[in-house]
């Protein structure tokens, strides 16, 4: 049997969430739900559940390089997404690997989990600014990550413009500034410095939002792998994540995951 034609292939370079709500696990579910073949380069293993991150173990850089080469040199990827990179050494390693492939890259500059657990060493921020963001097609910081990376604190929707300009100055082609932590509607700004796309969704009354950021970035990567433009991929990803948050469910004793089966 020749097998059916392969779906678009998307690679996530991120951390494992043992609870299945965020990280690699959320990424692969999103990629499947959006009709793509998901593949993974695991950067760190976390012991994690609905209550938070109990432990995190970065993998050696050699293991990250070997996973990446195994996937890219045989199967190939039409888009790559990065999430938790844990350490300065891994940020540098991944930035180098990404510079060696000519595909769209979605960088979710993951810093701290919703529970306040550090997912990136503080001394890795410079490598994110100067090595990783310059190779990004789209960077997707939330407002805490904007502050960590640029020093800018956003207080209202208008402030998203200054945040986007500061993030774009670090080198990504597009910045998607996620304003979900502001009060009111969940408003994000996507811009490449000339076009501006405002994405607005009503605030949902559901605290089970674990994995939101991973899901959004993976959905964008899946769209780009499928041939969508950046604005199309981001608009579709926002719809997908809004549906996943609406269907998020309680699990364990804390914050449950967004749902990919809706
Ligand atoms: N765990 C891993 C491995 C992650 O990559 C992320 C986010 O990117 C998180 C946890 C945090 O998820 P959340 O802030 O949605 O709870």
Automatic annotation (TrEMBL):
MF terms in GO: hydroxymethylpyrimidine kinase activity; phosphomethylpyrimidine kinase activity
Catalyzed reactions per annotation: 4-amino-5-hydroxymethyl-2-methylpyrimidine + ATP = 4-amino-2-methyl-5-(phosphooxymethyl)pyrimidine + ADP + H(+); 4-amino-2-methyl-5-(phosphooxymethyl)pyrimidine + ATP = 4-amino-2-methyl-5-(diphosphooxymethyl)pyrimidine + ADP
Keyword Transferase: yes
Domain of life: Bacteria
Key words of the record: Kinase, Thiamine biosynthesis, Transferase
EC number, as in UniProt: 2.7.1.49, 2.7.4.7
Keyword Transmembrane assigned: no
Transmembrane segments: none
Pfam short name (any one): Phos_pyr_kin
Pathway it works in: Cofactor biosynthesis; thiamine diphosphate biosynthesis; 4-amino-2-methyl-5-diphosphomethylpyrimidine from 5-amino-1-(5-phospho-D-ribosyl)imidazole: step 3/3
Enzyme class name: transferase
Domain Pyridoxamine kinase/Phosphomethylpyrimidine kinase residues, every copy: 17-259
Known role: Catalyzes the phosphorylation of hydroxymethylpyrimidine phosphate (HMP-P) to HMP-PP, and of HMP to HMP-P.
PANTHER family, per the entry: HYDROXYMETHYLPYRIMIDINE_PHOSPHOMETHYLPYRIMIDINE KINASE THI20-RELATED, PHOSPHOMETHYLPYRIMIDINE KINASE
Descriptive protein name: Bifunctional hydroxymethylpyrimidine kinase/phosphomethylpyrimidine kinase
Taxon lineage: Bacteria, Bacillati, Actinomycetota, Actinomycetes, Kitasatosporales
């Amino acid at each position: 049997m020749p097998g059916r034609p392969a779906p678009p292939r998307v690679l996530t370079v991120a951390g494992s969430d043992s609870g299945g709500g965020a990280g690699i696990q959320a990424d692969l579910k999103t990629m499947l739900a959006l009709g793509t073949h998901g593949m993974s380069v695991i950067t760190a293993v976390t012991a994690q559940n609905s209550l938070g991150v109990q432990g995190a173990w970065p993998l050696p850089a050699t293991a990250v390089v070997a996973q990446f080469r195994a996937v890219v040199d045989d199967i190939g990827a039409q888009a790559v997404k990065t999430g938790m990179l844990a350490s300065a050494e891994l940020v540098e390693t991944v930035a180098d690997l990404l510079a060696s492939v000519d595909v769209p890259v979605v960088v979710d500059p993951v810093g701290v989990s919703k529970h306040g657990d550090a997912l990136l060493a503080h001394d890795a921020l410079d490598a994110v600014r100067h090595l990783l963001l310059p190779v990004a097609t789209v960077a997707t910081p939330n407002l805490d990550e904007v502050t960590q990376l640029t020093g800018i604190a956003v207080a209202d929707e208008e402030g998203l413009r200054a945040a986007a300009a500061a993030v774009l100055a670090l080198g990504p082609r597009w910045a998607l500034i996620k304003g979900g932590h502001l009060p009111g509607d969940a408003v994000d700004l996507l811009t490449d410095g000339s076009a501006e796309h405002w994405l607005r969704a009503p605030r949902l009354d559901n605290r089970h939002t674990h994995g939101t950021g991973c899901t959004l970035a993976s959905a964008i990567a899946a769209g780009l792998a499928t041939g969508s433009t950046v604005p199309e991929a981001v608009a579709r990803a926002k719809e997908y994540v809004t549906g996943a948050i609406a269907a998020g469910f309680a699990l364990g004793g804390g914050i449950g995951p967004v749902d990919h089966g809706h």
